[in-house]
């Protein structure tokens, strides 16, 4: 079996490691328990969250034991890393509801079970802490000067770092210590913005337990155009289909830039690296085959094979026949039949779907010639759409070449 770190290296995950040779040797000789944490500050993860968990899954396949820490305790504080402003404070009830949804999403990527992997909640040990004892026993090991040297705190100091956020690094470091003590965890992984927090945990283990632990960080993924991974005109690409439809999820991956498709195949699928390399030689229109495979594999992992198949069929029907035989997977909205009989301004119609974020966005789309309804171009912003635009009882709206939305009169 290939060494787990070699797998991560060849697939492009690794940014920094605190001791590559030491960790490599440790993992070569015995299974290692490792962890990644995520704070349930929202109802859903988005694709940008998933890089460490795909890395965790690869190490699990290599024989190591993963622990996913869903941090209800740390979510009550809010990690300042990578943030220019303080996070919104949530109630414990809100956080626990978020946690239930996130657990299901992570289970699509990492296998959990007593003999396979663990999912734990850090509120179990943080919630009952005595603050005076915590400061005495844990806080004494932290240097304020050392903490302020980390980039995450430097950035926040420019706009103001609250005392509650300053405690976050202590709490995450304490997580690592508790996982080491309870489960023998020797490796913490995360995005590169977590470097300071990970190092703090390692140092705490060394000072209290006299043992070596390790840290491994991954590249913060951006697209080839420099934009943040997982962002669209509509916002984040959430894993929850109620926030981001399965069809749109499929289309997000299907429409990635040519320069990104192979990189994303390596990071966001479990396709063998040898198979991925076969796609590297594709150019131009042939590269669409790689994009379709990426979209299908990623959608299958997150939403299941049946949903991925439906999304692929819907996309193929839309592109091949202008909408004939479209599946229900394409996002849909209904309008009043009476309203359509009277006529709806094209700007209002497009702005009422997810194709346009506002009326101004819809005006620009129409003015630039990018708006079509049932393969008829919308000529100008004053166009009125009525029953005569229907085909097979549907208005199939299109923005540009690849984004579709159905409008059905009721």
Task: Report what the structure shows.
The protein is α/β, with parallel strands linked by helices. The protein folds into three domains: 4-218, Rossmann fold; 231-321, Orthogonal Bundle (Tyrosyl-Transfer RNA Synthetase); 332-409, Structural Genomics Hypothetical 15.5 Kd Protein In mrcA-pckA Intergenic Region, Chain A, CATH 3.10.290. The chain is 45% helix and 14% strand. The chain contains 20 helices and 15 strands. It has helices at 4-10, 20-29, 51-61, 72-75, 92-106, 123-126, 131-137, 144-148, 151-157, 163-166, 168-183, 195-209, 246-254, 261-268, 273-279, 287-303, 305-321, 337-342, 346-351, 359-367; strands spanning 14-17, 33-38, 65-70, 118-121, 187-191, 214-218, 231-232, 235-236, 332-335, 344-345, 371-373, 376-377, 384-385, 395-399, 403-409. A six-stranded mixed β-sheet has the order 1-6-5-2-3-4, sandwiched between helices. Strands 9-15-14-11-12 form a five-stranded mixed β-sheet. A hairpin with a 2-residue loop joins strand 11 and strand 12 (376-377). Helix 11 (168-183) packs across helix 12, helix 14 (261-268) runs parallel beside helix 16 and helix 16 runs antiparallel to helix 17 (305-321). The longest helix is centred in the last third of the chain and has 17 residues, at 287-303. Mean pLDDT is 87; it is low at 82-86 and 321-327.
